[in-house]
Amino acid sequence: MALLESNCPDLKLVARGKVRDLYEVDEKSLLFVATDRISAFDVIMKNSIPGKGKILTQLSVFWFDLLKDILPNHLITANFDEMPSNVQKYREQLEGRSILVKKMRVLPIEAIVRGYITGSGLKEYKQKGTICDIPLPEGLVESQKLPQVLFTPSTKADIGDHDENIHPSKMVDILGGNKVLADQITQATISLYTKARDYAAEKGIIIADTKFEFGLDENDQLVVVDEVLTPDSSRFWPANKYEAGRVQESFDKQFLRNYLESIGFDKNTSIELPTEVINNTLAKYKEAYTLLTGKEITL
User: What angle is formed at CA 195 by the lines to CA 293 and CA 80, rounded to 5 degrees?
Assistant: First the structure.
């Protein structure tokens, strides 16, 4: 059954994001609930993708474990039997789509990293020869591998607003002039992406780009937070069908974006998605999960 919005009255609701509902469990921990909402172009659609939240959660848990040697993360547990009793009473709603995490001071940066040129990066490149004002060689084409991995951060927008791509140097100002922290974020983002990219390549998936979010723990150490390398936050392409110079087939919500572009979506108004788009999007998410983890997912 699809979960469009969680309802846990005995937990303190902190926020509802585009996909996640966030609850405070106690003074040191939060509960991240991945609903089945789906957004594109920063607009939440009227209907949901049944089971999507479970795929996002379980894929994030997989990546947290694989990447923990590069940077610690905020995960306490994803095992529902280990959750506090005030969470367990909502098992029917939350099991499989929730993670208990440590509270962190979340940094106001979307840490985007690109290995290939596509999307908003390609749009800017065609206009100015740059991505996030970083100059690139001439002659790059749609979906081409970039000469080197690019760190291209953006601001974090409120719901309904659009994130704004920024030059990496502007990140220092957003972080209160903390250049050391800005450099840490840059290096961590590239290291996390590189390890994940190489792992996925062995499984037949190209990770064209992705975004990470970071926080600081009680000792001011950098920690990975939020979701990690899901089809919501990344572009996953089938390697056996990759060809530079055209838009790629994908295992992510690019299918949804392409549909919205084809109907002249205004990028502001929430709409009802056709059943075919919902089913195809879900099938792509499930396929990505199975290829990456080697497991089938039960929804």
Answer: 40
CA distance 181 to 157: 21
160 pLDDT exceeds 70?
A: no
196-230 pLDDT, tens digit each: 999 999 999 999 999 999 999 999 999 999 999 99
Termini Cα distance of the chain? 8
In 107-196, DSSP assigns E strands to 109-116, 130-131, 134-135, 145-151, 154-155
CA distance 229 to 202: 16
**Helix pair angle (275-293, 52-67), 10° resolution:** 20
Could you tell me which of 267, 276, 272 has the C-alpha nearest to residue 41? 267
Q: Which helix (H) or strand (E) holds 14?
A: strand 12-16
What is the mean predicted confidence (pLDDT) over 63-67?
98
The answer to whether residues 149 and 114 touch, using CB atoms and an 8 Å cutoff, is yes
Number of residues that this document lists for the chain: 299
Q: pLDDT digit string (tens) for 223-235?
A: 999 999 999 899 9
Nearest of 49, 103, 126 to residue 216 by alpha carbon: 103
